[in-house]
Each structure stands twice: as structure tokens, then as C-alpha cells.
Design goal:
Radius of gyration: 23 Å
Shape: globular
CATH architecture of the largest domain: 3-Layer(bba) Sandwich
Strand content: 15-25%
Number of strands: 16
Largest sheet: 7 strands, mixed
Length: 466
């Protein structure tokens, strides 16, 4: 089983004794959760369940385009927080003696292979079982959770962890718009390609389009027309917990962040040092924000934070800049209205340019949705999540970012009680923690939860949310 990416021939039920945790979702979050659970002492068993493809990939690392790079340096991408050089060592062992810099950026496909390889190392571990089919329901029981599978069978476990990743639009409902995670298909090399959005997904699409030999124009538009900033060397400011303006307004938070940026620049650094100094405290800051200020942040500041926080590798920036200089790539401020098919096989994009009341119709070869990962979690819910919402076992947070969970990651029901046996991690728990989509943040979350689950007392009834 090369790199642990291919499903085993036998995916039957496991037997054994000891506490049992089901991890639902075999993308990066789910694999990291499973690996950290297996590192715990004792007899805790793990069933990792994935219904759509190889484990360790998800939408982030399923790409096969080597131009799609991680936007985080190698030294920050270890699967284990307590072994920060683990990924770098794995790369060096894999590179036939070639020097691999821990300050560099490797392809996302390489990282998917890394996660798959770590999982493959546990193929003979009797505590791990991998199931390759969809979970269609979760039913709370007096002793834990009954996991209902697509083949009609079910699995009784003590705890279930939702690692279902990002909510993504259904391809059929999205047509004639193409999703950003679908591979680029080369056709007319002279036609116009329209990209809705100007963030990280747009950068990946541009790199793939240019690599395919496309010579025609590429138009990217978004409401603000902001592009991700690029990585340079940084020396993060040391921001102490006592310095955090917890509970302050978004305006006050922005003033504080700008003051840190000025401090970094005065010391010979850049604003990046300030952002990287703030990063470890984002969860604490978000949890302390009143609901009205969270909403204000999402409306006015989230995009600005994202382009400074989620940067692109220098080599990607060079290609992007050259495409703009050559006139092939254009960035515009505009709002997308709708897409319409045409009899000639082309598609029309109806947009409203910035500060204009009149719409504009552009005819394109292809329209790609690059608006990123913040989607309505109910509109784009999987059948499993939709079922949990319908049953009242879960609820969407008021700002419609994700499932509502408590500080420990336990689902909050529609009646405000807490499920004692069902947890959510990674992007599914974003509403509570905001910045929980990057590997450095997810690995810390799963390490904490793994330690909790390994030492958890006997099953207990739900408590009311306070």
C-alpha cells in the first residue's frame, strides 16, 4: 500500500476490547486525530472512516499539480507539535539524500503523501481500523454513539469525532460554475477564463492555467480585489497574553494590530512579524469577542486579516506578478451576480463592477469559483451533517460559520445542551475557534482532545450549556 493512500482490500468490522473512538472523515484533520489517539497509552481503539477517497488528502492535499504549494514553511508542518522537525526529517529521508530546507515550501501533494505514510506505519497496529464508506448518521445512545454506515450496518463506539472538513458546494448545483478544487481542463488556449475570488484558491488556479499553456486572458475579481501577500523571512514579535485587548471592539483590535506592525517595522522588521506574533493568540481573542464584534470582523476585517495571515510562497508570487505585468492576468473589484450558459458552449458571467449600479456581462470559456472555504455550513451540508441538524443533535452558530461547539469541541444541540460523546475538530469547529484550518492549529487541537479522550471517565449524561 504505497504511502498508505490506497484502500486495503479488507475493510470489514474490527473486533476487540477497550474504549473505542470513531473519527469520521479521513482528510488531514481526521488522520491527525487518529494518529494522536494512537500515540496515547492504553487500549483505546480508533476507527477512521472515510467515504470519498484516499485517507490523508481531503480537498487541500488531493491536488496532483506540483505547482500547488503549501502556504506554510516546512518547519511548521510537522504532524506532531512535540516533534517539530518530524516532517522535515521525513522529506530528507524521501529525497534521496538531496538537501531539503526546513524554511522552504513543498507541494501540497507531498504533504498528502506524508500523512498517508504516517497512517501506513500503523497498518499492523491492532488498535487502528480503517473503514472506506460513508457515515450517514450518528445516534446518541446510553453508552456512547451508534455510527450508521452507508451499507446499512452500524458501529457502536464510546466517542465520535467529526473531522468532516470544509463545506463545499455540490457540483451539480454549482454548474455552469466549476469548483476551484476540480482539476483544470485545457481547451481553447485563447479563451477568457474568469476566476471568482482573488485569494489562495485563485492563485492555485492561475498557476495551473498558466502551466497548461493557456495564452488567453485570465480575469480575477472580488469585492475588494485584494491579493494574498507573500512570505519573507520573519522574526515574530513576542506578544504576551497580558497584552491582549480581550473583549475589545474590532476597531480597537485593528488599532492594536497596526501598533504592533509599526513596532516591528521600527525594529527593522515588517508587518509580518506582528501578524505572526498575534497568531498564537487568535483563538483566545476570538473567544473573547462579543457576538456583535465577531459579526463586524467578518463583514469588514476578515478579508484583510486573511490576505496578511495566509501568505503565498515567493515562487508563486513571482509567477503571479509576471502574469499581471504581461497583461494576461487582470484583478478587478466587482461582485458576482450570476452565470448563464450559452448555446455555443461558452458561459456568461454577470458582474457588478465596484461602485457601479449597472451590471456587466462577460463571455468566458470557463468560470471557476475561487471564493475560498467560508461557505454556509447548512446550505452545503453533507447528508451526515444535515441529519444531525435536522435531529437537533447539532446546530449552526449564529454567524453561520460552522457547527456550534463548546470549549472542548463537543457539539451543542439545538436545545443548548452539550453532547457528551460527539466532538468536532478542524474546519467543522471553526465557529468557536475561528483559526482552526491550518495544520499548526489543528495538530494542537487534536493533541489536546486525544489526551482528553484517553483519560476520560465513564460516559455521562449531557449538561446544559451555560
Amino acid at each position: 500500500m504505497k504511502d498508505g493512500l490506497d484502500p486495503p482490500a479488507d475493510s470489514g468490522r474490527e473486533t476487540g476490547t477497550g474504549r473505542h473512538v470513531a473519527v469520521i472523515g479521513g482528510g488531514a484533520s481526521g488522520v491527525l486525530m487518529g494518529l494522536h489517539l494512537l500515540r496515547q497509552p492504553g487500549d483505546l481503539r480508533v476507527t477512521l472512516i472515510e467515504g470519498q477517497g484516499p485517507m490523508g488528502l481531503g480537498i487541500a492535499y488531493a491536488t496532483t499539480d506540483p505547482e500547488h504549494l503549501l502556504n506554510t514553511r516546512v518547519h511548521n508542518m510537522s504532524a506532531f507539535h512535540d516533534d517539530p522537525h518530524h516532517f522535515h526529517r521525513w522529506l530528507e529521508q524521501r529525497a534521496d539524500g538531496a538537501k531539503v530546507s526546513d524554511q522552504g515550501f513543498v507541494s501540497r501533494a507531498t504533504y498528502g503523501a506524508y500523512l498517508g505514510a504516517l497512517l501506513a506505519e500503523n497498518d499492523d497496529n491492532p488498535r487502528l481500523h480503517r473503514l472506506f464508506q460513508a457515515v450517514v448518521g450518528l445516534q446518541e445512545t446510553d453508552t456512547g454513539v451508534n455510527v450508521q454506515l452507508a451499507d446499512g450496518q452500524s458501529l457502536d463506539v464510546d466517542r465520535a469525532v467529526l473531522a468532516t472538513g470544509h463545506a463545499t458546494p455540490d457540483k451539480a448545483r454549482q454548474w455552469p460554475i466549476v469548483g476551484a478544487w476540480q482539476p483544470h481542463v485545457a481547451s481553447d488556449p485563447q479563451g477568457l477564463i474568469i476566476l471568482i475570488g482573488s485569494g489562495l484558491s485563485m492563485v492555485d488556479q492561475v498557476l495551473s492555467i498558466l502551466k497548461s499553456g493557456h495564452e488567453g486572458p485570465i480575469l480575477s475579481f472580488s469585492r475588494r480585489g485584494l491579493l494574498p501577500r507573500n512570505h519573507t523571512n520573519t522574526a515574530p514579535l513576542k506578544v504576551q497574553a497580558a497584552e491582549l485587548p480581550l473583549g475589545a471592539s474590532v476597531a480597537s483590535l485593528l488599532r492594536w494590530a497596526r501598533s504592533l506592525a509599526r513596532l516591528a517595522e521600527a525594529s527593522g522588521g515588517t508587518w509580518r512579524d506582528a501578524v505572526d506574533g498575534i497568531r498564537p493568540h487568535v483563538r483566545t481573542i476570538w473567544r473573547a469577542l462579543p457576538q456583535v464584534e465577531r459579526a463586524r470582523f467578518l463583514r469588514h476585517a476578515a478579508t484583510w486579516w486573511d490576505v496578511h495571515r495566509h501568505r503565498i510562497p515567493p515562487q508563486s508570487q513571482i509567477v503571479l506578478d509576471q502574469a499581471v505585468l504581461d497583461g494576461q492576468l487582470t484583478i478587478r473589484k466587482a461582485t458576482f451576480q450570476e452565470a448563464r450558459t450559452r448555446p455555443d458552449g461558452l458561459v456568461d458571467a454577470v458582474i457588478r463592477p465596484f461602485r457601479r449600479s449597472q451590471t456587466e456581462v462577460l463571455t468566458a470559456l470557463r468560470i471557476v469559483d475561487c471564493r475560498g472555504i467560508r461557505r454556509d455550513p447548512e446550505t452545503h451540508a453533507s447528508p451526515l451533517v444535515a441529519g444531525l441538524l435536522s435531529a437537533g443533535t447539532a446546530r449552526i452558530d449564529p454567524l453561520r460559520i460552522g457547527l456550534e461547539v463548546d470549549d472542548h469541541g463537543r457539539l451543542i444541540r439545538a436545545d443548548s445542551t452539550i453532547t457528551p460523546a460527539i466532538y468536532a475538530i478542524g474546519p467543522a469547529s471553526r465557529a468557536a475557534f475561528w483559526e482552526i484550518t491550518a495544520i499548526p492549529d489543528i495538530r494542537e487541537q487534536v493533541a489536546r482532545l486525544a489526551a482528553t479522550l484517553a483519560t476520560q471517565p465513564a460516559f455521562h449524561r449531557a449538561t446544559t450549556l451555560k
